[in-house]
Automatic annotation (TrEMBL), chains A, B:
Pfam family name, one: MDD_C
Phylogenetic lineage: Eukaryota, Metazoa, Chordata, Craniata, Vertebrata
Residue ranges of domain Mvd1 C-terminal in the record: 199-385
Function, in words: Catalyzes the ATP dependent decarboxylation of (R)-5-diphosphomevalonate to form isopentenyl diphosphate (IPP). Functions in the mevalonate (MVA) pathway leading to isopentenyl diphosphate (IPP), a key precursor for the biosynthesis of isoprenoids and sterol synthesis.
Protein name according to UniProt: Diphosphomevalonate decarboxylase
Occurrences of domain Diphosphomevalonate decarboxylase-like N-terminal (ranges): 16-185
Length: 403, 403
């Protein structure tokens, strides 16, 4: 695929997905290599709704490595970017040295231009760095024709990026080695495994404080929270085993309850951090109440929430319950009547909300608490975009005007 | 003191204090005997600002045990009330059987009338049951002339009531025995020990949800929170030692930091409960932010917060910093301009808030977030009220009109 002419850059475009952890990653044992204090497990979301697109071009004529993120040139010397570039080039060089002279033409000694965009608003508060670094590493690997285990490189860009290197249900095994060589992502089940599983992202309206960033938040938690240490050492190992079983058996109840408990425990360790960190807003708390009351009404666990380092909820549920639950969300968080559409992404049928369910939930509605809902499902890992018109960099190696 | 006539009841009135834990009690290992899963430590607040007053009368002419709380007759058969009555009568009987014939006149075979009032609004969300049961047990002990260790009886009314049986700084030693005989309160330092220490109760305006009661909340936490188990077994024992040292050395920094960390850890275990329990409101979180930013501004820990099973903050600080911190509270939680006085209790001098401090804290003011502040200090344990005009029960054994 990659071109070989003197002047025209060798250009590749790929996309990569967002992932949402159901067993949470919080805390590093090695900051530089990004080695975690516990294993974690996530669901890869479908790229039809949420993705990062990255184009990488190499050319003998490029003077230096450059990067544009969401239309703006950024500093290429960022240490985590440098880690990813260095590791991919190391792999490429190794492959050449291992004796394939045809690879000389791949241009891995050339400089790269990188251009990347997210198709989801930053306001969605989704871990854009995971999709971003996964996409960067995957695209670089296609440009330099590097194969094999790449999640360890993505991990050095952003820890949870390693899990976006696979579709479906993915675990990040913490590993034991000091050099991090065994701290890798692994697919637990492919995206076709559990087709009934659906995902809603509830984008909470911002009103409150600026949250603490996850890098510095994790550091403070590792330094100060006794409960985090206990969680990582004594609680998560057993939960990983149970979660993998729940996914493999497609046991929604077990999956859902463990997901909620682990989200709550992660936020508990944030509160046990000194000074404490609050990621859940009053709207988040109301979503939690709504889910528990909805489940209580039916006497079974039909819906699960999880929250990362921000107030937005991610909801897991089986397909058949989506229309009613979306109505419940819309009822208890009435949107602006003149706003855009409330539900984006996969279409959701309209159903009526029974008076009985409404009364049984019995919460005070919180107008405009949720801006909108993204309806999506489990999806595949990074993909190459074959259509060259989709490149974000032009034949001059610079971002196209449309970006 | 107690009277002895046939018709006139033997009447005693006592007062007892509120206590605020700095190492928190959350979780019972025995529900009936109220034995905790960890030791705890509290500060007894001064009764000039917050107290319960209880009058107990006994008379040969009373037909049955009766109780009036805050002007309303309540069910005397409540199991915890019955535990306290039974235990005091057992002690009284034991004392007679041990051979003091003069005690025959105490009338402990007689029925009792009990009348109790709190001088603080329920809205203050202070653990009124602790002061209430401490006052009940103390007053019964005076009526029946029972002496010795009474905290084990108060504990059976409401766990934290045992700590209100002493002034100053009080630990509740969890004990090891199955019968609870060694689960008792003990004074760590008297109320005169640290006269510079001051206390502010920030009464948060209610707006949000009804909280889960502490009895059922504790049960759910014990059943579901792995972090609570770890806290009780592995964190609290070390913290008790450190807190006792901090109190004895009057080391405000150590006292304050441990107080905040333990409050946060208690609320973390509530969040780790399934379903999770939220006691901190967005106003509580803002108080936490205010305290940390205030301390950061000065580069030292001048102020500490602690929160029980509700949104109200209790603030500990040294006397010299009270005026400025109260101004900061008033600035960042502007009260209703036509409301009553914002600061009740011990007078607080007015000082100006520097522009520099205001900017350094840099929070968005939350109008009416705090209804009022009670300014108080460390105080003594239960007291007998000698003035008979203060009795809440008249000579007929019924509540006086004024109650």
């Amino acid at each position: 695929m990659p071109g070989d002419s003197m002047d025209k850059p060798n250009t590749v475009t790929c996309t990569a997905p967002v992932n949402i952890a159901v067993i949470k990653y919080w805390g590093k044992r090695n900051e530089e290599l990004i080695l975690p204090i516990n294993s974690s497990l996530s669901v890869t979301l479908h790229q039809d709704q949420l993705k990062t697109t990255t184009t990488v071009a190499t050319s003998r004529s490029f003077q230096e490595d450059r990067i544009w993120l969401n239309g703006k040139e950024e500093d290429i010397t960022h240490p985590r970017l440098q880690s990813c570039l260095r590791e991919i080039r190391r792999l490429a060089r190794k492959r050449r040295n291992d004796g394939d002279p045809a690879l000389d033409s791949m241009g891995f000694s050339h400089k790269v231009h990188i251009c990347s965009i997210n198709d989801f608003p930053t306001a969605a508060g989704l871990a854009s760095s995971a999709a971003g670094f996964a996409c960067l590493v995957y695209t670089l690997s296609r440009v330099f024709d590097v194969e094999g285990e790449l999640s360890g490189i993505a991990r050095q860009g952003s820890g949870s990026a390693c899990r976006s290197m696979y579709g479906g249900f993915v675990q990040w095994i913490m590993g034991q080695k000091d050099d991090g060589k065994d701290s890798l992502a692994q697919q637990v089940a492919p995206e076709t495994h559990w087709p009934e599983l659906r995902v809603l992202v509830l984008v909470v309206s911002f009103a409150e404080r600026k949250p603490v960033g996850s890098t510095s938040g994790m550091q403070t938690s590792v330094q100060t929270s006794r409960l985090l240490k206990h969680r990582a050492e004594s609680v998560v190992p057993g939960r990983m085993v149970k979660m993998i079983e729940a996914v493999q058996r497609k046991d929604f109840t077990a999956f859902a309850e463990l997901t909620m408990k682990d989200s709550n425990q992660f936020h508990a360790t944030c509160l046990d951090t000194y000074p404490p960190i609050f990621y859940l807003s009053s709207v988040s708390q109301q979503v939690i109440n709504l889910v528990h009351r909805y489940n209580r009404h039916y006497g079974e666990t039909r819906v699960a929430y999880t929250f990362d380092a921000g107030p937005n909820a991610v909801i897991y549920m089986l397909q058949q319950h989506v229309p009613e639950f979306v109505q419940a969300v819309q009822h208890f968080f009435p949107p602006e009547s003149n706003g855009g559409q409330f539900v984006k992404g996969l279409p959701v049928n309209h159903v009526a909300l029974s008076e009985e369910l409404r009364r049984s939930i019995g919460l005070e509605p919180l107008p405009k608490g949720i801006s909108y809902v993204i309806s999506t499902k489990v999806g595949p890992g990074p993909c190459v975009v074959e259509d060259p018109t989709q490149h974000l960099l032009g034949s001059d190696g610079l971002p196209k005007e449309t970006v």
